[in-house]
Amino acid sequence: MSSPLPNSFRSGPDERGHFGTFGGRFVAETLMPLILDLEAAYKAAKADPSFAAEMKGYLRDYVGRPSPLYFAERLTEHLGGAKIYFKREELNHTGSHKVNNVLGQIMVARRMGKKRIIAETGAGQHGVATATLCARFGLECIVYMGAVDVARQQPNVIRMEMLGAKVVPVQSGSRTLKDAMNDALRDWVTNVENTFYCIGTIAGPHPYPAMVRDFQSIIGEETRVQMQEAEGRLPDSLFACIGGGSNAMGLFHPFLDDPSVEIFGVEAAGHGLTQLHAASIAGGRAGVLHGNRTYLLMDHDGQIQDAHSISAGLDYPGIGPEHAWLHETGRVTYLSATDDEALEAFQLLSRLEGIIPALETAHAIAKVMQLAPKRPRDHLMVVNLSGRGDKDIPQVGDILKGRQK
Amino acid sequence: MTTRIDTRFAELKKQGRSAFVTFIMAGDPDLATSLEIIKTLPHAGADIIEIGMPFTDPMADGPSIQAAGLRALKAGTTLKKTLDLVRAFRKDDTATPLVLMGYYNPIFIYGVDAFLADAKSAGVDGLIIVDLPPEEDDELCLPAMRAGLNFIRLATPTTDDKRLPAVLANTSGFVYYVSITGITGAASADSSKVAAAVARIKRHTKLPVCVGFGIRTPDQARATASAANGAVVGTALVDVLRDSLDAEGRATSGTVNAVADMVRSLAQGVRAAPQAAE
Hints:
By secondary structure, chain A is α/β, with parallel strands linked by helices. Helix content of chain A is 44%, strand content 18%.
């Protein structure tokens, strides 16, 4: 990087939504006025103490926050190195970190008077969280989900429908998360007057990446306080899996200006980085898609390539623009874990700690398994347990059964 | 700077009629056929030609144009080959304005400066880039103007009077009014609303205003052409092209004529329209 490092890693984006050269507002004109309205509405909400108070109440009584910071004693013993803590986001209502962001966006949508909510979903965790809060606040909910993901994440499809949402299987393109986002954007362009697009990750046009990050930052803020209580100091390293990167950014952001804290994001390496994968930092380059400039998987002509991951939630050919910037500045180290490594971590965590993680989360655990043994016993390592694996049980069960044969 | 687009609108004004603007995807269903189609368009009555640059993720397009883009990509179309297509067309036709339409990423990856230089030398006159609003003018709009290409902006029903000046500020060639909030190929707006919208835009600019989205019949083309300086048809042509393909999606002996016939009948609609009041 030729440009000097910033004084703070926490001050972005600028008023045009840029994190360094990443981010921005690359959307059709039809959406632009609404995006400006949203930016104004979010700014007003942030400045309104009653918004924060309302959020606080729902986060405590409906979501169940704060989520615990749990010492994973048996995993620590097993790996024989760093002292490993889990930030238990999987204990939130709806089973993942996604609810933190959805609650915030639904509150903003209510302030804007929008009654129709649309969302894209990969694994279905964001869809479930959106369907849940729409049920709670009496809003119409339409969830776009790639047809491939509808098939591999059936439990979440059934949950969304039980909650009253309409799940639209997306048949275009690779029929996964990227295509769900395309169709959600097409719906939004068509129904722009009455519709709020609740984006599930820290991507999309400004102000989404910043807004979603702000709503997820409660993860890292709580972690700071809880680690202080548990150990009397800051953690030494942080780990989180990354599709778009919202659970990771939620944990990382409050620690970005603490240089003693090493930060690791884990992308999905699928079958391996030389084959089909979803690791846009490891295997991609800067481009423009879905409203922002960021790292993307694409061919020499700028055509977007299909991602592959065993986990539907990471199966996306891009990453949030703030991660792209944190990569370029070197503040965060981006690693990747393969399908097989994630499956192994999934099983290990289930048996050692009695916690069945989401396949997404298992990618972060996989890298902890590699790096924790290399760290001293007084090294404090925090992993974001971003989601629980109930939704993955049928899929993982089938894979393991297939391997026994 | 005066481009072929400016010259064409000046000619049409003298003739007292509106422009017929046709859209066809480069490389759909293959590069040779699409070159043949594009060559026949002016003879069939097209005044301005928009050539789609295929992209895997066209977020403002409906199923027809999405499918056309995928057919083109499957046939090996790249941005470089799209520019080759323009160059081949220009060998025989130096008058018909050509506008490239698409999404930013393939251009960004090609390299903005290289793309503008190559597009200009190939004979491109203007660009319509769906995902570049005025907020991102530094990316391509301003460099395109400096390179002597028109940057044609989309205005939509959500572009209110407060926002119009910003949308029009760096627009040249013409303004493309998208008559509905929606994706390409969706239902059309009724013509009284279109006339009011065009009048609203004309209060802010002297540029010609062309209207598109949802025009499928000669009657609709006539109605739109009488309310604006031009009518844009895309999905209807892409659908006719698709219907002419064989079961494997390959061109047949009827493909070029099918599109040309449709263009002729729509052009009659446009030419039957009384010219819009200035």
